[in-house]
């Protein structure tokens, strides 16, 4: 057995980190080539390699339901396509070889030549026919998502490396013309002229039928040759005579239409790049429609689910998190913003077409995750769980291996601290299992539901690379070294690299997934090659979720117009700032190793309970002659689980390091006794935003004491409070509330120290009795008069050229639907030909006496004032919530002031004769408004209460988008005038000289008013999917504040007011003003909340 010095066994210091980089980068290159060479030898041109059998893995045609294989393997040499971008990356740092050959570059070019020989060059002529197929004309039913990210993405990335859009150090992609051929001439004889781009287009075209759905969500699967004949409700399969699908979806064998958020919404990077390179917008349009179809169906609390039906748009499962089925949707929202940044977009629809729209989607998604899915330090160590999609309530405790991608995404987004702290748990889990189990429970500390395999997934290594690039902390080099050592020790076979069927026992699976070479080896190599061009390149390129780098090259980028970009409404512009890495602890090398909470993650992973593992037997020993870099640490894990990763040298452990005290949550249960003669059925009722409690008998409230925050910009920390997180074993979401009627709690002691009822000093309910708004019945002759005016002398619609007479705004695409316009004309003709009602019958009809409108009682949230001028409310009893003649409101005379009462005094008789005065907010201080009310004798029919009405502009952040756009336009005009003053020609002048003119609104129009030519669309994008109602949140509203009366109350003459005027404030603006104008009576109803041990129970609402 020949052993060499491994990268982890040499003395490490701050001056010798290059050793681990150089040695481990070579070992990673060896890992890749051991898998790639064996695939090409034993499996090509099939899709994947069986490393234990030394044979190819192909589609399971005997069992079409075997989707774990059939969804991915399309019979088109998948592993080669997935490996091409890794070969291109290795080609930038080739090992020294005699003769100066660049073996990875040659293998990259040879791999492309092999693909062209087997699948053609993507053209229509004879060169388009390959040994296997013409393009991807294959009878394979594959998953749309997997085919896009592996097939289309792999081909596009390899094409961009081939033509020089992506960098390969030392490679010049020069187009030449020789002997009638034009392209990039390679040493293997292939003239590259875009074959991979044409093949990617061919593959994408075969996927496009899946996007023809009512929702815009693509069907999950498609046959590369036959399309989608197996979906019963597909518009392509409505031919009753020749249709090939089952007409009944419930019939046995009908194809399911369930896709997932990640599968439907993670197509933007590949399809946008394809559209920009080919000039055909159909791919990007389809991907955008799918992305927004997912996002607009998010829940009211901002969460995206996993499974979703592509035909109905309904969520299939109420569970959500950040892992399987959801993961790459978040990834593509941010990366699409990066990829498309600086590119022109449709300014008529900036909310769905601009790069900033995708950034906003990511930020909103992250806010929802941080609010509901993230568990903080009080749960041993920060991590993510599974929650209810609609309420945010906890549903499961497991984390999965796919969710390890999220720390890389957080790093890319600048959320560095959250990425570092949550990555520690995955590092501890890998240390424990020497791999990443598919699913692991934070509650039990064991593998969840028997999902104990690791198929070579890259997500944990990917995040490690991102974090190292952001922090340059050597900790992450040793994390990567640990993964490399464990892969070599546990996954090595004679013919490749096998996945682990059981991470505990080391049992292997006879499959090498294509992503092991396409992603896992790639990210390991980039981690250990800090000078690689992709580690230093300043360009808006991104890695897809399959690890393929893509970029929109400068040669296809259109020049942006000089007009300002259309901003997104209700979204404040933010300056992007890259987060700084953590400051290193003095006299230490690694800031991560010196974190005081590092052992909290180890404790959560139960590392301290694990025995030492001695693994002495390994097939590496038998084949070490071919791999001289193998060391003892490759066949034995030296970890004793006292520190992690086990490759960390002692030099990085801080001297006298001390773990911080683990935070804990203060929780307790509050139980109520079983009351006699009470019915338990229906005690809890699910209502909007929470639970309504109808009976306290036997109720148990689980409460946690914590600090909450106001989720705004900036975030505001609130006082410590109790939150009910469970009620009688029903888990509640973070923002869910518990509602109780006053009658439900009247029998309990209001002074109980654990359940103390307290009057709310900040808010109350303003009760308003008012009749409903009058409803004007539609005129029966209005339509007839309209048509008479349109028809004139004509008596029949057949005599009318309706396009010249009636202006109808109809979507041109809808007119293509059969019978649309003819149905409209038929309806109008039927209306005109109906017999008219005689005058006799009209005049003899006696109108029914109008019924008195019923009074309705409205409850408006109101805030009480604070400050030295605040006065207590009149001592009146609380009215009921429902209107009745037996429980009237006490104040009946109201006066609505038209202006803000800032200039001039109120007439004295108004305060003497009205109990309520309503004043609009704004213009001056609240104290000034009261100052302008004259003195009056305190009587029952004189002024009792002043109501301030707040308007929407007072309750949103104080940025003004219209002003922002106007300022940008002014800057643009000023720039044009400055150019002209200097003798140049601005953009406006150029447009005018080229036959364009500017209308008064500032829009450019052609001088002869010719319509702008439309871009060509495919058949599948001419018909836009039906967009669901957008679930976009309203503008970020500031909660209604308490009015500040900053001085004691004075009369207009300057004397202290002997009887201060009570004041409250409500919101609603003009709508509330209109309600007060028709009000018949007004009253107030106090609000109450409960304290437990002197601390407020924040989410318990007393109705």
From TrEMBL:
Organism for this UniProt entry: Lophiotrema nucula
EC number: 3.2.1.-
Keywords: Calcium, Endoplasmic reticulum, Glycoprotein, Glycosidase, Hydrolase, Metal-binding
Positions with biased composition (Pro residues): 1026-1037
Chief location category: endoplasmic reticulum
Any one Gene Ontology cellular component term annotated for this protein: endoplasmic reticulum quality control compartment
Calcium found in the keyword field: yes
Cellular localisation: Endoplasmic reticulum
Single GO MF annotation: mannosyl-oligosaccharide 1,2-alpha-mannosidase activity
Protein name as annotated: alpha-1,2-Mannosidase
Cofactor(s) it depends on: Ca(2+)
Family statement drawn from the similarity comment of this UniProt entry: Belongs to the glycosyl hydrolase 47 family.
Annotated GO biological process: carbohydrate metabolic process; endoplasmic reticulum mannose trimming; ERAD pathway
Catalytic residue positions: 146 (proton donor), 327, 438 (proton donor), 459
Keyword Kinase set for record: no
Residues holding Ca(2+): 545
Region (Disordered): 979-1040
Record-linked InterPro entries: 6hp_glycosidase-like_sf, EDEM1/2/3, Glyco_hydro_47, Seven-hairpin_glycosidases
Residue ranges of the TM segments: none
